[in-house]
From TrEMBL:
Organism this protein belongs to: Actinomyces lilanjuaniae
Protein name: Glycerate kinase
Taxon lineage: Bacteria, Bacillati, Actinomycetota, Actinomycetes, Actinomycetales
Top-level lineage group: Bacteria
UniProt keyword Nucleotide-binding, yes or no: no
InterPro entries: Glyc_kinase_flavodox-like_fold, Glycerate_kinase, Glycerate_kinase_RE-like, Glycerate_kinase_sf
Family of this protein: Belongs to the glycerate kinase type-1 family.
Length: 397
């Protein structure tokens, strides 16, 4: 039997947003795939198990790209929201993996910048609140500028971004890029794509600013003030960027172009840096969809008998989440899909509609053994190995 292990990250979501920064519990997608594969092969050693972890553009996505698809891997040093020195990966991808925004071949080289790692949502609530109150996206803008200077005209630079604690409307980022004029000069002739792990808008009732209280823990009045300042800066930036250049910008899923605003899909990623880059001419797509294309998920699904995916906490299946992207690829070949979740409250009808055949949860209801990620990384690996063996006994033929 041939089995494809195509999991995403397994991370806790104490406030509805996965925690993937330094010190956060859980496992990255490659570690999840390896643990499930070990368990399966211990139980059914004759089966062929292929590992194809799926990233979504969030922190660490560069680690999911197979080494044979990377021609150059470089570490760029930058500053986090409150001055922390961090490194982010810049990958030059092999020609076969290069793709443009619509899935076609890119005319030049394709690069991927794991920028989300620089402003990842911290596990420490005190640090998260400090970043919300004092943080800036300047360091992120500087790293994007470094990456753009390493590219050439006709190249494609893909920038992974996700939700963060910092919320300055991209003010720091645009300053680091040299303002609107300097940023456009850096982007000129290139295809700049945003690979978004979170499609949250910058402002609005469901925007990143409105969610600061829940995700970061600042008081409501503080969240409102931060959001007011961020959206005011974003509106000022858009007025400057669109002066004499009032073309519409297509929003994902819309058949008619519409103007870019602080409530546009995806503009709230990385504190509003996504809005800044969109204003400079970047396009944006859901991260799991882009990363699956880059890493060849469709090719990996071929000639398999079963696909196993995984996620930390699943309450619904967002259309372009890693689980949904994997299930869609498997559906195209009529393959059964098994979902391993740390915790799952997924309704049966929703999982069936998405193409998921069965769900297995690490956390069992009505038990006192702690959460699904209790005990740290080693304990979680052990649970996943045991789950891999259980799946093999149930599904192998």
């Amino acid at each position: 039997m041939r089995v494809l292990m195509a999991p995403g990250d397994m991370r806790a979501q104490p406030s509805g947003t996965p925690l993937v920064g330094e010190g956060c519990a859980g496992l990255a997608a490659p570690q999840v795939a390896a643990a499930l594969a070990r368990g399966w092969q211990e139980a059914r050693g004759a089966d062929v198990v292929v590992q194809a972890p799926v990233a979504d553009g969030g922190p660490g996505s560069a680690q999911v790209v197979p080494s044979d698809m990377v021609t150059v891997r470089e570490a760029l040093q930058g500053q986090g929201p409150v001055g922390q020195v961090r490194e982010v990966d810049l990958l030059q991808l092999a020609p076969a993996s290069g793709a443009g925004p619509g899935g076609g071949r890119a005319s030049g080289r394709t690069w991927f910048l794991d920028a989300a790692r620089l402003v990842a949502l911290p596990a420490d609530p005190a640090q998260a609140r400090q970043e919300a109150r004092e943080g800036t996206t300047y360091g992120l803008g500087a790293v994007v500028a470094q990456a753009l200077r390493r590219t050439a005209p006709a190249d494609t630079l893909l920038v992974g971004l996700s939700r963060s604690a910092v919320h300055d409307g991209g003010a720091g980022a645009v300053a680091a890029l040299g303002g609107v004029r300097g940023g456009r000069a850096l982007v000129e002739g290139r295809s700049l794509g945003l690979v978004l792990a979170d499609g949250v808008a910058l402002g609005g009732m469901d925007g990143a600013g409105a969610g600061l209280g829940m995700t970061v823990g600042v008081q409501e009045w503080e969240a409102q003030e931060r959001d007011r300042l961020a959206c005011r800066h974003a509106a000022d930036l858009l007025r400057v960027a669109q002066t004499g250049r009032l073309e519409g910008l297509t929003v994902l899923g819309d058949s008619q172009p519409q103007r870019l605003t602080p409530t546009t899909w995806g503009t709230g990623a990385a504190g509003g840096t996504a809005l800044v880059l969109r204003a400079l001419g970047a396009w944006a797509l859901p991260g799991a969809r882009v990363m699956a294309r880059l890493t060849g998920l469709e090719r990996s699904v071929r000639r398999q008998d079963l696909v196993v995916t995984a996620a930390g906490e699943v309450y619904d299946l967002l259309e372009d989440s890693p689980v949904a992207v994997v299930a869609r690829a498997a559906q195209g070949r009529a393959l059964p899909v098994v979902l391993v979740a740390g915790r799952s409250l997924l309704p049966r009808g929703e999982r069936a509609g998405a193409g998921v055949s069965s769900v297995y949860s690490l956390e069992q209801p009505h038990t006192d053994g702690g959460g699904w990620d209790a005990g740290g990384e080693q304990a979680l690996r052990q649970r996943l190995e045991e789950m891999g063996a259980r799946l093999a006994r149930s599904w192998s033929r």
